[in-house]
Structures are given as C-alpha cells and as structure tokens.
Amino acid sequence: MNMAITDGLALMPPAFAEGLDAWSSENGTAGSASYDGAVNAALVPADADFGTCLELSKLLSVQKLRAMVHTPIVPGCYLRIRARVKAVAGNLPSVRIAGYAMSGSGHVAGLIETGPEVALPTYGTVVTVEAIVGTGSRGGVDMPWGLAPAYGHFGLDLTGLNGGVVRIEDLVIEDITEAFLRDMMDWVDVRDYGAAGDGVTNDKAAFEAADAAAAGRSILVPEGTYFIGGSVTLTAPIRFVGTVVTPTEARFALRGSFDFPTYAAAFGDEMTGFKKALQALFGYTDHNALDLCGRRIEVTEPIDVKALSPDISSFSNRRVLRNGQFNVVVGPAWDDTTVTSQATYSTATPLTLTNVGNIANIPVGARVSGAGVGREVYVRAVNVAAGSLTLSQPFFGGSGTHSYTFTRYKYVLDFSGLAKLDRFNIDDIEFLCNGKASCILLAPSGEMFQIRDSYVVKPKDRAITSIGHGCQDLLVDRCQFLSNEGAMAATERSSIALNVNANDSKIRESRFVRFRHTMVLNGSGHLIVGNHWFQGDDLDAAPRLPGLIFCQPNVQSAVTGNYIDNSTIEWTNEYSANPDFGAEYSFGGLTVSGNTFVSIDAAPWFTWFSVKPYGSGHFIQGLSVANNVFKAIDGVVTRIDGVDTTFAALDNSRMRNVVFEANTFNGVTQMTVNPVSVQVDQASAQAVWTVAAGAYLPFGGWARNVGALVAEGPITNAAGGRINGMPYVTVEQGATKQLVTLTWQEAVKGRVHIRLRMDNPN
C-alpha cells in the first residue's frame, strides 16, 4: 500500500531550490519566520554530494527547519522523513528529524515530535537521519501521533553546540506503510513459516507454526497443494485459496473455522471435505456441531463413518449435524449387495445363524429374508472364522437348515461400523436420495439418536434402519419422509421408513408418504404422537397394508393424536423364536387414542387395526382403543378391527381388559364397541330371550360377561300381567359363543338394556 500512489496524496516537501520562503525557522505554521533572506541560510547550487542544497549555520540552541506545507496524517498510513546532512565548518552539531502536529483547531500538544538524534562525526561525512511518524504505536514508529492530528509540518532540528555550518540535501517524505503491512494484516501466510505447497513436502509443522504465530489473526493458505502428514489441530480461523491433502486416518481439526464450507475449500472437494469435517467432529474439536451452512453436498458413495475414524469403536458424546442438503449422485456405489446362502437356525440360540455358506461375502447390515423370517431382520455381526452370523431378531419359523437371502442396502450415512453411538443428532438436513440410496443406517448399539426438522426424500429401500439396539430411545421429530414408490400400488411397494429393535422410541409430529410400511417396531415404551402417515394408492377398492407394525406382544406403548391414512396398525409376535404362547406376556399394554383413521377407495374387508399371532394360544390382556375417529371415503369398510389367522387365531377364552369406547364411525358398516350396551326388544312372550351383540365385539370375541341388565318399562306375560322377577343370563352361547340368553321365570315380553363384554375387565 502506498497512499501517495493509490490516493494521490502529496507527501514530498518542496525542494530548497524552489525558494526558502517555504521553509520556516520556527514550527512551519502560517506566519512563522522563514529562511528567505535569513543571514544563516543560503542555497548552494552544486555541492559535490548533494547538488543543489541548503547551507545552514546553527545560531540557536535548537535550530529548527520546518516545511511550511501541510503533510497529511492518515489513519493506517506510516511516513518516513529522511534527510542527508554533512558538517562543513565550525562546531559539529547533532541532527534529528522533527515535526509539528496540527489539527483543524491548532497544535496538538503532548505528542512525541522529534526523532532520534544523530551526531555528525567529522567534516564532509554524509549522515542520513530519519524518523517514522504514523497514527499507530507500533514497533519502529518514532513519532506515534494517534488520530488527533490532521497534518504535520516536518523537517529537522540541529542541536548541540552553536557555530557549526551544515549542508542539507532536499528532505524526502515517503509512505512506508507496506513495511508494517505484515503486522497490520489480519492473517498470517503459511508459506512464511516454511510451507512448501508442493503436495509432497510434509507441511504439518509449518501449519502449526503459523497457527501459533497468528495471535488472534487468521491463517491464509495460498495457492498450492499442502500435504499434512499427520493429525493437526489449528485454533486460529483459516482461509483456503490452495488445498490440503492428508492421510485417511489423520484428523484435520479446524477449531477456529469448524464448518463445512471451510472444509470443502480446504480439500477442494465437497465429499472429501465433508468426510474430514465429520471425522473431526468425532475427534474432540471443541465443537459439538458441524454446520453445513445451508450448503448442498453431492454424494457419490455411501459415507462410512467408521472408515473415516478407524481408531474409534464407540462414541457417546453429543454431536450435531445441521443445516444443509445431501444430494445422491447416481452411480454403481449405490447398488445393493445380494448374497444367497444356506444356513442353519436353532431356536436354542435364537439370535445366531450357523454353518453359513459363503459367509465372507455377507456384510454386516444385510437384511435377511427367507422362510420363517420376520420383517426387518438384519445381520448385526459376522464371524467368518466360526461361520456364524448374529441376528438383530429371532426367526419365527423354527429350527432347520434353509436357504436365505442377504441384501445389503447402501446408505448415505452409514454408522454400522461403530460398535456404539450415543446422542448423535441430525438437525435441519434434507436428504435427496433420488430413488438410488437409502438414508441412515444406525450403529448396532447406542441411545438417543435423533433426527429432527429434516426431510428424507425418495429413499430407495429404507429411510432409517436399525440392525441392533442403536435405536434405543430413537427420536424422530417434525420430519418428513417421502417415498420413491408413491405412484405404485400399495401392495407392490417394498420401501420402509424406519424400524426399531429396542425400547422407548419417540416418533412425533412427522409425516410419512406412501411407503410399503411406515414403522416396524419391536420393543416397548414407544410413543407415536402427532404424526401423519398415509399409504394409499390410486386404485379402486384396493387392498391396503400395515403402516405401523408392533412386533412384540406386550408393547407398553401409546399411539396418540395421529392421522392414520389408508393403512393398518398391525400387532404381531413375529420376532419370537417360539411363537406359541408360553410363560410370557401375551398381547397387551397398548393405548390407541385420539387418532384420525381414514381410508379412501379401500377394499371393504380392509381394517384399521389387526392382530396377527404367529403362534397359538395368544390373547389380548390390555388394549384401549378410545376417542378415535374412523372414516371411510369413496366406499365403505365393514369393520375397523380384525384378526389375521394366517398362522393362528386368538384365544377368546382368555381375553382381558379390552376397551373400545367413545370412537366415531363414518362409512363403517359395523361399529366395534367393548363393553357394549344393546337394546333387546321382545314382541311376543318367550321364556328365553336371545341377545345377539357379537357383531359389536372386537376381534370376533365371545360374549363372556354381562355387567348390567335393566328393564325399560314393564315386563309383561302373555296376558299383559306385570312380571317383577329378573331373568338369569347365560353367556358364550351359540356356535360362535357370541350370544347371551336371558331366562325368565315364565314367558314374557318387553324391552331390556344389557351391557356385555368380550373380556374379563381385569
């Protein structure tokens, strides 16, 4: 920077040859005495050293020489005043650069206005005397004037003994701000600390030295390729013009600039930059969040988190990935891996497959399918030496040797290589899977994984997959999941939004559109609150599939305030190696309340709630379906509930604590109520009245208990006489055991109200 050049500032004082009336013997201010006609000043036209110069005799203790022009003082600008002087006769004086600081209102007092003194050693010896003036108090500045002065009158002083005669060359005033530029700039350059930038030399030490020297400034990485041969942590903010390369295992931690755009610039590639930033996030960078700053990342291959951090097997500190978009780029890296092998399953070791053929080619995270295998069963671990696989869930089909198919989907974010991951949060991220990739694969173990305020758009196979217990306390809040199969018939779809193997998931205020299944949940303690999922299609009178699937009989869960569209809540025990009822709890612990259930153009046999036991002897021992609205549009639905007897029926003799009440039915042929109150009208006198209320009872249940019986109006005999005696009731009558009989002491007629139920109340 040179303000004489860039801003056209006039810095140079006038030459002596232009007239001594421009040079003052006082302070240089207007009206002060000049050297024009002075007895002790004369121009010398042709000095051997100086050419035209001023010859000045020292008559005063401080003989002043000041230019009467205004030399501007500009903030951030540093001026050097320089003069060459020699003694020619008399006593030898000392010389110093001097100035007079002025503002618009006059002299600015209290400032240093002289530079260092230089003694003239001998006659004829040329001595250069100089001083630097500027607004800042920096090293090397002789006269730091601050911001008060607007200009100065500059020249020199002769001090020491009087009687000496000196000759003075024209003074020079020049802008030397560039000499201070390094300290004035807010960055340090890694090249100044030894960085080569040739892509070969290890510049790690140079980067660390630049970071140490920054002292509150930032680091500049200029054009070039800088090889960093090991892990490095830089505290100062950093800006990249050039790029860096590092070994895969080396962490590049930018504590002062920890965000995705900086990493993308650092590595010259979005994918590489994101991977290194994510690696650093797991490396204690003093940051618990990686901000993508609204940027979009073109993802060309699955991001294997374990491969990024080979020295980390588990991680349990809160980390957040936020504010950006991942866009999957089509390529072979997203192709599924499919292996078909024979293996042996034994119910004695329900989470293990043994004698697995071709095991070396079966990857962790592959989904297992085949006879006797439930939905969403995955390979949790592979032991090639033992020829065995660890499963996420048992098979229901019993022991035996069968052929199984192992399908490994490819995920944008793959955490499966970590043994455990706790408290990882994804916030305000959009995943554009483009029908080519699945989205998130959880670690085999972990707690409190959360995705919130995010979008998963068109996943190929799965949105969120758990292959173990990494879904414990899974949190999904205010997200939207959009299937890639929306145009297909519901029965032809294969994608699933999410599955859970562990307990206590909270799926809240999210929206799921047209997957084959929305949620497949094992475990208990789940809260499904305020969501909207719909799985319909554009076909007429079409079958519908389960949307929410509970795979554990005793779930201790609540489904509350959801909009459930064209799909069934299905309750199974498909993850039981011994699915026949034994000593365990049977189906129970489920509350379904305050939901809106809708079907559009569904087949009439469609039901919104279905129980599917995979073994015999099961029953319901705790279910509340209350305060819901059921509505069929463009067609009617016969009833809201059913039992899928593909494998077994429910044991109606053991039903307990089943409540269907305060629900609203629209377009539903038969309401489901338990306990149910029915009105019985007997027009002709009969000793035995038959009450047929079984159609109201859920799941084809038996009429097992009568809780109340009251007559409305008089009960009369055939002759019209009033009969005051009460009948006794007999339950579980008829071939289906859904009838109740009232036996009177004689043949009577009239009206009664009876409250009956298909279960024991406790």
Automatic annotation (TrEMBL):
Gene3D superfamilies: Single-stranded right-handed beta-helix, Pectin lyase-like
Taxonomy, superkingdom: Bacteria
Rhamnogalacturonase A/B/Epimerase-like pectate lyase domain span: 187-248
Name of the protein in its database record: Right-handed parallel beta-helix repeat-containing protein
UniProt organism field: Paenirhodobacter hankyongi
